[in-house]
Amino acid sequence: MAPHTTDVLVVGSGIAGLSAALGAARRGASVTIATKATEPADASTWWAQGGIAVARDDPGGFAADIQQAAGGTADSDAISVLVENANDAVRDVFIETLGIEFDTDGSRFDFTREAAHSNDRILHVDASTGKHLHVPLLNHLADHDAVTIDTDTAALDLCWDEGRVFGALLESGGEVTPTFAGATILATGGIGALYSQTTNPAGATGDSIAMAALAGAAVTDMEYVQFHPTVYCGANPFLLSEALRGEGALLRNGDGERFMPAVHEDAELAPRDVVARAVDRERERTGDVWLDVSPLDFGETFPNLAARCRQRAVDWTDGIPVAPAEHFLCGGISVDDRGRTTLDNLYAVGECSRTGVHGANRLASTSLLEGLVWGLRAGEDAAGGSPQVIETPSRPDRDPALPTAFVQAKFDRLRRVMDELLGLERTHADLDWAVAVLRRLKGEVDAYTRTRTSRSLYELRNAAITALLIARAASENRESVGTHFVVSEEPEREVPASR
Fold it and tell me: Is residue 27 annotated as a catalytic residue, yes or no?
């Protein structure tokens, strides 16, 4: 098929990708959004609960909270970009352009607080803010004359040469076609599919990170994988927003004891990495951890979460059973304050990027804001270029069938490695093992991608590359900080089956 051309190609359709498309379209660029998603719920943004943080009238306090949650590891210049643009970006896009009706207390916005925030600064819509922001923004762009949205379309590889990116090879309906662009913006979200328990949608396979790394882009801070401490751990798990603890919900262990006051001075509102490890340890010690929502009017204040509990026959009056699950990658493709990567004409925004804002641990309700701010800035910067058509590597004439259950078996193996060796607590020996196992796994997958273009196979390839990047970064970082928590002694346990 003949190649397509566009001024700006955006890969991904969460808040970061859509904000980038909006920024570019406002500058007069033609924009193509390519997304694996077939419905809004396929993007991580749709699942975001707590809300979107803003600076209000205290950018200094907001910046200090971000840095403190990161354990002093965040980039101060990146934090300044975030907090200085927060109010204007949210007002511009969500209030003035889209008319989002954030919750109010009658006459004013009902700002709430989440863990590690020193003030009430989070705008929200119930506890399902993500979908209330995502769907209107998606609809706004779908109606935009300069924007084309190609759903059920996966990027397999970037088109690049000599340190410059010219577009991407896109697969849709079994057909692989190059789309050339003046600028390419990667925005495919996170890596949750690399773990067995995650708050991410199934398509979060690290696609952008893997493609960028293969093209030679720098990636940074890959060891910093954040786990959310309160995910319902029964059948059909779901996230229980940090806003619950912000409103007074408490964590109790299997003996009914509240344990967080003995762990951190901020108790349930300590940084996520601290709470997640404490929950994990109490589950191991006492068998269970429960989120006690009796201090608040759960059904009235959080009707959407209450409805999910009812669907699963969970009686919240007895507490809700919770466990940590993979939630957010704080590292990713290295970018500057406009989302520019180390390759010409390639940008990255949202969770797949590493802006430096989060350091070793992300502050609650900053992910939507980061996607919005960097998305707008990247889109505006990317506009103005013209597509250039280059010769792309030849693809196989046919797509031989994969061995039965090949992809699923390799994914199962990959997830065992990530769960057992790259979880909340790590040891140096585990990390060395992880690198060795994942290197072999990647080699096995590479042997098949040379002759095939199956989307599921490329997702597996991307997952394997991203997992190996995480393992290598973790193995090389001997300092225990934030989400990268390395225990000094080997725990007594069985040798993982993945070895």
Answer: no
